[in-house]
Amino acid sequence: MDALRVEALAGDDEAAVAEVAARMRATLVEVLGEARGGAMYTREWLEGRVRQHLRPDAAVFLALAGDARLGHTIVREEVDEAGARFGLFATTYVDPASRRLGVARALLDRGEAWMRGRGLVASATYTDRDNEKLIRLFESRGYALEPAENDMVILRCAL
Ligand SMILES: CC(C)(COP(=O)(O)OP(=O)(O)OC[C@H]1O[C@@H](n2cnc3c(N)ncnc32)[C@H](O)[C@@H]1OP(=O)(O)O)[C@@H](O)C(=O)NCCC(=O)NCCS
Fold first, then answer.
1. Where are the beta strands (DSSP E) in 66-121?
2. Would the pTM count as exceeding 0.90?
3. What is the pLDDT of residue 107?
4. Among 4, 37, 81, 146, which lies 20 to 30 A Cα-Cα from 65?
5. Which CATH number covers residue 57?
């Protein structure tokens, strides 16, 4: 494999926007199943959602090896119920052929560095309570698991 690198998605990279959107759908299908996950959003909506994160308080990071896009993570700044700012990993996906090679770890390193750079002192992500792969990934980095609404869990960590 070419050397792994992580880069921020540039707003004019239409092919990358389309691929990240397609992988957001692939994530929903993988986690929720084809019937629920595949029908949830249109391609246009998902591409719009990617573009909404190309702003100062959000970012889309791509994991690249040569010309191949291996995965992505989307981060943004949020405010909790108590009014405290925190960094949210909105979605993280690695192409199945490139899994268990540390690609997600590299993406999360970059996302957490982005959060620290904005002065954030806490990070979190939500997922389905049955999403073992993502739960193990975040737990391996010291995130603590708590139940959340609608069969979801939240994983939180101080930065
Ligand atoms: C979760 C996901 C992003 C992990 O990507 P990855 O590049 O394979 O993860 P890494 O290789 O960086 O793994 C880092 C660590 O996370 C944990 N981990 C990752 N995948 C795991 C799995 N399938 N089973 C158990 N632990 C796992 C391990 O601790 C691993 O370290 P190790 O390989 O040295 O044991 C990937 O499986 C994926 O894209 N899943 C589908 C998308 C998804 O569910 N996204 C979240 C939606 S909210």
1. 68-79, 85-94
2. yes
3. 98
4. 37
5. 3.40.630.30
